[in-house]
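re the bet — no i am not wrong, look at it urself. input seq straight from the record:
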Amino acid sequence: MVGAGLAGLVAATELADAGRRVLVLDQEGEQNLGGQAFWSLGGLFLIDSPEQRRLGIRDSLDLARRDWLTTAAFDRPEDHWPRQWAEAYLHFAAGEKRAWLRRLGMRWFPAVGWAERGGAGASAPGNSVPRFHLTWGTGPGVLEPFERRARESARTGRLTFAFRHRVTGLIQSGGAVTGVRGEVLEPSGAARGERSSRVVTGDFEFGAPAVILTAGGIGGNHDLVRRHWPADRLGPAPAFMVSGVPAHVDGLMQQAAQAAGAHLINADRMWHYTEGLRNWNPVWENHGIRVLPGPSSLWLDPSGRRLPFPHIPGGSSLDTLAHITRSGYPHTWFLLNRAVIKREFALSGSEQNPDLTGRDLRMTLRRAGKAVQPPVQAFMDHGADFVVRGTLPELVAGMTALTPEHPLDLATVQAEVEDRDLQLRNPAGKDPQLAIVRGARAFLNERLIRVAKPAPILDPADGPLIAVKLNVLTRKSLGGLETDLHGRVLRAGGEVIPGLYAAGEVAGFGGGGYHGYRALEGTFLGGCLFSGRVAGRAAAEATR
């Protein structure tokens, strides 16, 4: 097993439970066990769940399939296996996924989130209903049952961890993969997520009847991100991007597999976010945190003009990214007030949600109180991308001071805010963003804890005013190594490479890119769970 992240742990425990002996190699130290899943918010995509039904959310496999296909927009010959993986995953998410995870001890927050809510129309990308189920314990809570099972297998001798072992190549014999080779790195005491030493102290070779690659994506390697950046679709890559993953998410194993004959497809499909903040308390270099916004903030370009509809907060990440990068914007702005940030701002990541991560019910219930959540308040107090002022002229002056190379005109910003606020004098109005806000509040959980009641941004009672400078944040690879429905890696002509499997982000979460061009969210951890289980079970069957 090459990679000790979530997909690797799932596959390894499936193999160990089937009686196989498993060696798990990872270039990082034991402190990074679990990989990127540890840092995640722990959201899982489920279809027609009890949590949805209790909130009056009517979902179905047919509706979810329609949402997935319009969002993925599969349009290439290489999408043959990704399409089949998408269909298999939808059945999993509507079927045994929740029951399987619940048996392992996983539980979910009762309010279901509405990520990627779209807004451009019924046949356009996005979730028609909320489907983002937040795990109690966030990312560490998702990892917990698989780490526990892996450590138990290690105690009984069925599983061995080999940390600080960086795989650099595959060993092949007679056209089949029969093992791996690589370098032993010196021990490192770097904390989880921090850059670790790359000093080589030796080399290794291990043979095995099956090799499963679960080595993750490329988001921490900005050179590789830029190499694969689809300039024809998105325009030039931004000159500055913050990094949503540590530097060791480098894509090197994916390149090594490609050099050994594995077919890498859809490498130009990426999932980067438009709402990145520079972390005021970083763990890794250039550490970015994503805002998970509700739909009410005004989204402005660098000059202070409102982004055209349907580019609204929480709408369609890729489409808004394309608008921003094609326009050459170095940054954008959210403009809001204290009432909106209190209700609608969440921050992605386990470390930014200590109440949910720590399973602290009392602290979690405080989210319904009057105070801004402490992690958000910390960014308001210390974040380099936040401007907090009492009046609009003061706010615009502060925004210009933060980006003097892109000054904002007060009259332009004031017109955008006042035009929006005037639409609130009547229960309807012609502002489509406000129509989406009102529609979202038809769901109980959106109304109670996620979406603010429509109100004028300039109402002094809801102040102070807040502007948030947003950067593009690198995160996920949507493409990857092409695999069949057993997780077996394929050559360019579609031939199976005997002995080689892949799961998780290195395989585009299934098939080489089961998301297509866009994700519905909650499908990254879910893709690691599903593809890791598939590959582990298939390898166990093949090595009986």
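see?? The mean pLDDT is 97. told u. also Residues 354 and 360 are 8 Å apart (CA to CA). so pay up
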